[in-house]
Design brief:
Layout: H1 7-15, H2 19-31, E1 54-60, E2 65-72, H3 75-86, E3 91-92, H4 93-97, H5 101-105, H6 110-113, H7 116-119, H8 122-137
Antiparallel strand pairs: 1-2, 2-3
Helix pairs in contact: 2-3, 3-8
């Protein structure tokens, strides 16, 4: 499995970058997502409300942690979903369900850095991750 950088490490790096470099960081982060098989890109795994197509598929590791596969047809949006997942990837379901992902994303101030079209689906990505984790934790 591909390990995403921690959200704290990303926030530290992001803070020192100019806008254009921040875009590059997000695009590079999206490239770190492991490939999601096309067969998993279905209506059931599609995140609603995103301007680009985004799919998120949960899996469970042998030790019971949640591992998400994700993809998007837009490079920056793929980076945003990777950023969301970096806050929770490979953690126990109950921990993921209780993680305040929106707060973890605050240092990135995405609404200031990106157009509203690019960020409008973020709450839906977070909701899908939380709902999945809560369901898998019970």
């Amino acid at each position: 499995m591909t390990a995403l950088p921690s959200i704290a490490d990303l926030a530290d790096e992001y803070a020192f970058l100019e806008s254009e470099d921040r875009y590059r960081l997000l695009i590079d982060l999206g490239r770190k997502l492991e490939p999601m098989p096309d067969a998993l890109k279905t209506d059931a795994t599609k995140v609603r409300g995103c301007s680009a197509s985004v799919w998120v598929y949960p899996t469970r590791t042998e030790d019971g942690r949640l591992h998400f596969l994700a993809d998007s047809n837009a490079a920056i949006t793929k980076g945003i979903v990777a950023l969301v997942l970096s806050a929770v990837q490979d953690r126990p379901a109950d921990e993921v369900a209780n993680t305040d992902i929106a707060q973890a994303l605050e240092p990135f101030d995405l609404s200031r850095e990106l157009s509203s079209n690019r960020t409008q689906g973020v709450p839906n990505m977070i909701a899908l991750v939380h709902e999945t984790a809560a369901r898998m934790a019970s």
